[in-house]
Amino acid sequence: MTTMSWRKRSRGAIAPVALAAAVSLVLAACGGDDDGGDGEAAEELPTGDASGEFEFFSWWTGGGDSEGKEALLELYQDQYPDVEVVDAAVAGGAGTNAQAVLASRLGSGEPPDSYQRHAGAELLSDIQDDFVEDLTWLFEEEGWMEVYPEALLEQITVEDAIYSVPVNIHRSNLIWWNPAVLEEAGIDGPPGSWDEFLTQAEALEEAGKTALTVGPLWTQQHLLENVLLGELGPDVYAGLWTGETDWESQEVIAALDMFTQVLEHSNIGQAAADWQPAIDPIVDGDAAYNVMGDWAWAYFETVQGLTFEEGYDVTESPGSEGVFNWLSDSFTLPVDAPHRDNAIRWLQLAGSQEGQDTFNPVKGSIPARNDPDESLYTGYFEEPLQDWNDDGVDKVGSLAHGTVADNAWKGEIDSALQEFVGSGDSAAFASAVAQAYENTRQE
Ligand code: GAL
């Protein structure tokens, strides 16, 4: 995996300062505060009967997002029948709305008992602000240091401490399609490069089909990261998030121009309100392609009842064969969680083999642990499971899903992207992103 390390340079910011070629992304914040605010909290597993409430906060509401969550919450309820589970989900794919609600709750000292965050850079500001407890003791107590892959543990370690429990690994760099639509347009298979996509798009449009669908801004960012990955390759792509790759270089500008060309063959003018309705035209046979993470599997299979390789198909997004663009959903223990013991019970379940093997085959992801019951991961799942565990497959992190850019920088990228999709001005976007990187390192 890409190696990135993070240093706290001054109050309020954690900045990436180094990139090496090999093993993993290391999040290391150094500096004064290192206890995550857990000074008084007992580092002990709860004992006795569980009762009272458990409020779980996530953005898993719509079809394809909520089924995995429900399976895990049901298992929790079975194990702790006297606990009242409060499912406090805020609708909006990728957490776009949930993150704002969460920020306000954390800021006003009203945390839920556990909340969802992407593992990686997205959690850094919570750690910096002492919003989350250090969970290293739980990892040790539960033996998780031995069953989570070493590289993943390094990725979620910040100054020798771990602050969230990853429940899965999702893959971002996927292109989904309707085989019947390709056939109708006389196309043999998915494009191997974005150039080839442009050629295919013309044939699709001639056949009266939309070549590519998109949804709200975050799905456009999801597309952008995978166009950049396909055009630049894993090393240059990884360097975008560490300062190593010059955003204003010719190579990056050309990749950004490609993104604009790709969007010209999309339905961005009628962009859907979220990722599920962006997939519907594929299901209905009106459009060919959508670039989305593998939560889309749950939508195609479970919600739409289609069969893999017949009703829908999927492969790596153009130009990213042999690369795994990853992200992970993880759960936290907020400082001052009102029902802390019940939250710890939830985290124990989310980190357990049973919990992950209950959640992931429904959610469309693979377990974050390295000891899954492989018989549960057939069909689509075989490839990600194999690729994730294959050192020959390059691992890079997702921008749209919190792996590589901290919240301050990502917020600036979001705003710049909104302008960029309107203007198509690659140079202005590249300069805004590069400038924002510098600015958010300094404060
Ligand atoms: C991602 C998240 C996935 C899925 C998706 C769509 O950010 O990691 O689990 O929920 O958003 O909402």
Describe the structure.
The radius of gyration is 21 Å and the shape is globular. The chain has helices at 66-79, 96-107, 124-128, 136-141, 144-147, 150-155, 179-184, 194-206, 217-239, 250-264, 275-283, 295-303, 340-350, 353-363, 382-388, 407-423, 426-442; strands spanning 3-10, 13-20, 52-58, 83-89, 114-118, 157-158, 161-162, 165-166, 168-171, 174-177, 210-213, 287-291, 313-316, 323-327, 329-331, 366-367, 394-397. The two termini are 28 Å apart. It is α/β, with parallel strands linked by helices and 443 residues long. It binds beta-D-galactopyranose. The site of beta-D-galactopyranose has 13 residues, from loops.
Compact overview of the structure:
This protein is an alpha/beta fold and 443 residues long. It has helices at 66-79, 96-107, 124-128, 136-141, 144-147, 150-155, 179-184, 194-206, 217-239, 250-264, 275-283, 295-303, 340-350, 353-363, 382-388, 407-423, 426-442; strands at 3-10, 13-20, 52-58, 83-89, 114-118, 157-158, 161-162, 165-166, 168-171, 174-177, 210-213, 287-291, 313-316, 323-327, 329-331, 366-367, 394-397.
